[in-house]
Protein 1
Amino acid sequence: MITTRGHALETLAGIDTLVFDKTGTLTEGQLSLSQVHPLGDLSVQRALALAAALERGSEHPLARAISAQAEAPPPVERLQATPGCGVSGEIDGVTYRVGTLAFVCELSGVDTAEAPVATPGTSPIYLGSAEGLLALLELSDRLRTDARATVAGLQALGIEVRLFSGDDPAAVTRVGEQLGIAQARGALLPADKLAGLRELQDQGHTVAMVGDGVNDAPVLSQAHVSIAMASGVELARNSADMILQSNRLGHLLDAVKQSRATLRIVRQNIGWALGYNLVALPVAAAGLLTPWLAALGMSLSSLLVVLNALRLLRGEKKASVPHREAGVSPLSPVADNDSRSG
């Protein structure tokens, strides 16, 4: 874990609520296209080509998964991304949209209730034009192998874990159930995530946010302490107070434990130093303590403080053993265009 701002370590020790993004954070972010369902006269190949043309240039994992399966997408004009919703553009004089159901249906005025429902556990992306819905694309992703253990570990420390995502609510709820996260909210725009985090802060919670995408940048900046995945986009990393360099959620749990241990040791050392001086100084001033004995006492006091601080190295070594392959200790101090889901 790399810290980029001075307050991060101390603040991380005091959090009582942690909010996760989904895609690329709790999941691996390596989405794959599982099914393409044409809803009109388009073939599967044509629907995929149109969607890939619109997604061209986007850094979002959904866009990369679609583009990887398409062959020779047609040229597109007037390409425009709407954060949290999708992308629109003109192909052969026709305006198309790809993205969330509400965003795509807005172009044609089709009732969202008439749209087909995606397979449970997949992330649905819709393609449409002014004529209506044209295709449903289903993408799948895998949870990170250490996601469940990390969430359970955070909850065991008394930290409330929540999930804020722009993805389909059904998919978000499913992930929440798999990981034991009771508060899992989907279909959130960047502004909705920001409002949800501010609501938690107004209730008196000290909140940490973990994310990786463009749509996470505002909420990362608002959180008391924020952590970005190293695999995330540059904007998210620049907005974060800490960067999870190894991309392993287990290191996040280690960092919380280590930050709490560090703060506890600091308080112990300050308490000891204050207590020692409150006793030793009046005794020395009264002439009841010889200079050599006072110097010895001060040296022993300093040695005790140092030895107490060295306990942190033992704790860090234990925390680092399960993650040795990553080559990163839990705490190492150092001085997209489209964002539909997360």
Protein 2
Amino acid sequence: MNKLTVIREPLLEFHENKHVDIKFGLSKFGPFDKSYSQNKIIKVGIVGTSHTIDNMRKWLEKLNSKIPSKKDNKILHPPFPGLETNPELNTKISINSKYEKVLNPVELQKALNHNNHDIVAKDTATLFKKTIESLLAKTSVDLIICCPSEEVYKKLRIENPKNLKQETLAVDFHDLLKAKSLEFNIPTQLMWPWTYTESLSPPSKSSISLQSESTRAWNFYIATYYKTSGIPWRMTRDPEVPTTCYVGISFFHNIKKTKVSSSIAQVFNEKGEGIIMRGEPVKINKNDKQVNLSEKDAFKLLDNALTTYKDEHFNFPARVVLHKSSAFNENELKGFKRVLKKYYIEFYDFLSIRRSSTKLFREGYYVPLRGSFLQLDNKNMILYTRGSINLYQEYPGMYIPKPLHIQLFETQNSPLSLATEILELSKMNYNNSQFSESMPITLRTSRNVGAIIKYITKGGYLPPSYRFYM
């Protein structure tokens, strides 16, 4: 049973071609939807101080030309080819002074004068929202870049607080700003000054690790393309395989940490698009501290997910895959299976996925290969979604990777095929240009969304698309 297998790296589908590497596929073939979104023009709005707006504008102009890579391994760290110099990228960024709005400096300074972290975060996020609203009253844009100053970061950082009373530290500025911006129905991007200002570095003793400029350019391009309704790449699918809806379920605390709710994210295999919903509050088992849904809430959650899928695709999927961050209990299984029976869905797989403390070792210097798969027994598997990659001839990470522990509950497909799907889903994060993520996008998405929607009161507006939350 304990036989080690290395799963072949899944291909991604770009414009009329396939490849395993994101940057290579985009630069050589172009985004998947290039054939029906030629010459994509993105109107970018910028909100910040006069200084940060000026620097952001200069950096956006710089993206038109090639940005060389300063790394030795050019396969792993290729240059950014430039939006104008490489037409395969299919993108032009429209910059105009009428798309820019400066934060009121008096109100900003007033917000920063507080000595309470949470008040600073709330007041600064509120000022950004007010300024965005003022900008949108006069013009329309496809994306809004929020550019807080270095001073804002120093007041909000908690790694080495100075003259700052840290009473609660309940508020995360990034997540709160995202939550406040959802009502505009326009994607946002938060960017700190050192991301686009060559002369700046992250503050000392900060937890931020700044990537190379070419990598930052790649990350920005991919995220911007997706946020403005583009499809950079998609999973490769065999037409003979049943259409599948992937659903990720995880849980989050409210701000006061008095309640736990469920958040849900779906990844549709046709587009890699995430559809977001919020579940009901759940109870924590006093004995084992596990968080589980009641049968009623499990039914409601998946029922909403599948009706949303039908609204998007005009039919129900033939197969449903549930990824959960904790173990399934009997009530959840009953509720989920009732939904599947309701819609005559015969094919399904229910898996619990979490990080594992189990480690595999490989001869020599390198960490285990990505795709290393070990089946422990009929119900438990170990899978490395991060690891050494043959294409690069190295491990593209800073720390020794931890594998995933995959527990099978109700499954119909083989453990190997389910692990291969998780490898595919670990390549579907449009928020950066990494070769892969540790978690499949189903669970990564639901966790990220939970961090944001905890700031939205029940009944508040939640855009359905993940592009507004990333």
Protein 3
Amino acid sequence: MQVSQIYIWKKEVINAYSNSNIIDTIKGLFEEIYKRINNLLEFNLEYLSLSRSVTTLSGGEFQRIRIVNQLNCSLKGLVYILDEPCKGLHNKDIKNVILYTKKLIYNGNTVISIEHNKEYIYESDNIFELGYEGGEKGGYLVSKHKPQKNIHII
């Protein structure tokens, strides 16, 4: 079953148990399921199948699912470190990654992202550039600045 088909399945279940003494419990479960499913749908992951193995997910799909799961978490004050959350994504999905990253922050968390996508970078609160080389010679702070919010990315 695809994520988008859960709404149809819900109607079938509600109809089948409408006269049952457990209908209130079923409705409560569907409320929790909907919270999670709606985030997946908003993140353009409606095509995923519930039976799909985690090992078959692309890196971008896996990372987006992890972000969605964290939005359903009630913990606050966490530090999230995202490793290239926009990597391998279509441009239309990058806006969703930005939106969901901001939701994590709005919920009282801190997000640190390692990212190369300029659209994502310019939506951040602070930019720390590290460089210049990799390995033991790299990782030094090159600059720290606020993004210029008026830059239009094409």
Protein 4
Amino acid sequence: MQKIATFFILTLVLLASFSLPTKAQNNILFSLQRHTYIEGDRSISIGLRNAESTPYLVQASLARLDESSGVKQLNNEETVPFIITPPLHKLEVGTYYDWRVMFSGNSQLLPKDRESVYLAKYLLIPPSQKEAAPNVDLNVMRSLVFKIYYRPKSLASLEIKDMEDKLSFRRDGELLIVKNNSPLYLVFDKVSIGKTVVDEKELFKPLPPFAEQTFNLPKNTPIDSNVEWNLLDEYSFSLEKQNSKLN
């Protein structure tokens, strides 16, 4: 009888892509530091440590981020101006490995007044695990997704904490609309109106430079003229709580 290979893919999207070691389900460890490539740099690195008892074949690739959802990639034919190497690497038990992300595009074609964002995707493929059914190989694959920010050299010295006064807020029914008037991508840690807290999944959505982002509010969010919020800094720490007027 022919064997049936069954595959499950579990995805963890690290949309802030932030320095603290953390783990993605079980014991695959990584850094939460923001991965920012400054124009002119040779490369940046994104590493994983395998603290599990199972080796993994890691397939690395790049994509574009769907900013409207904050969790999906864009399926288009536009070329990502980076390469990641190696595309395949066996991450043995107890080992750490750094993948290099190198700029391969034309910087003249990218915006000079703001950041651009891309995704680095790691598919962790384990050895086949035979379950009770002798003719089925069960493979549970995990996918880690990190943001990569391209920053023009003229913006190299900017820090996220200095962008807090660049946000403006308005409400339209059950929607919170936030305008980012800064040149950097920003990410919320928490947002609340009154005692109602915006769902964490909504906060996966980034705040694109010089653009608006829309967040769905929980049902029955009270009418209030203020919104409280925190941004995440370059190390995934929450900045001080801010209070802003809702227009």
